[in-house]
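User: Predict Molybdate transport system substrate-binding protein's structure from this.
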Amino acid sequence: MRKAFPRRAIVAALAAVGIALAPIKAAADEVVVFAAASLTNALDRVAAGWTAETTHTAVISYAGSSALARQIQQGAPADIFISASVEWMDAVADTGDLREGTRRDLLGNTLVLIAHGRDVPPVTVDADLDLTGMLGDGRLAMALVDAVPAGIYGKAALTSLGLWDGVAARVAQTDNVRAALALVARNEAPLGIVYATDAAAEEDVSVIGTFPAATHAPIVYPAGITAESKSPVAADFLDYLGSDAARVIWEAEGFTVIE
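Assistant:
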């Protein structure tokens, strides 16, 4: 049986992973959403559109999918979980923390190599890429390579190309992909691996290459309602995520909408 998860412990735990969470108890017209950090800009816009149409409110907490999944498994009060990988959604489902019949695949994305600054010349991302030389004395910014989806995809891609061993000791790992993006934007790391949608949201980086899709598992964002959700508008918001109005926003932000 799952242990009780006191409110104070929930707040402390979420703060520890950098989640900004509004009042935790969802009112009748609120839905609490735990979402992958890479969705920040787009999902904020989608939620605003939903609020304008319905007057309901989405209270969204962003972090790495792994951290969010673990919080849900420990009883954190989320109504909807949107992961950046099927594996972490599988993990939540496997522990009985996802409401059956609500899971759906929403979005796809692309993995890219970024550099600090604007208009940086592109490179070809393949087995001949001299990534170590490009780093110089700097580090490669990535989300946690064994936990956060963007980091897992990135490590898999580099391994597939035979580049991982050369840079493994040079990786600066962060709790989520937006933190990796920030390292490059602030020139604390010369290069990074993020999603194309993250790069599009930051003016101080350039996409210098795209990882071939065959080098990593498909990037899929599944969403579903948690087993413990009490929000009467959770299903409504989940449906809105796949609406025509949301599609316009997703595609404008660079995501691929999965039919």
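The radius of gyration is 18 Å.
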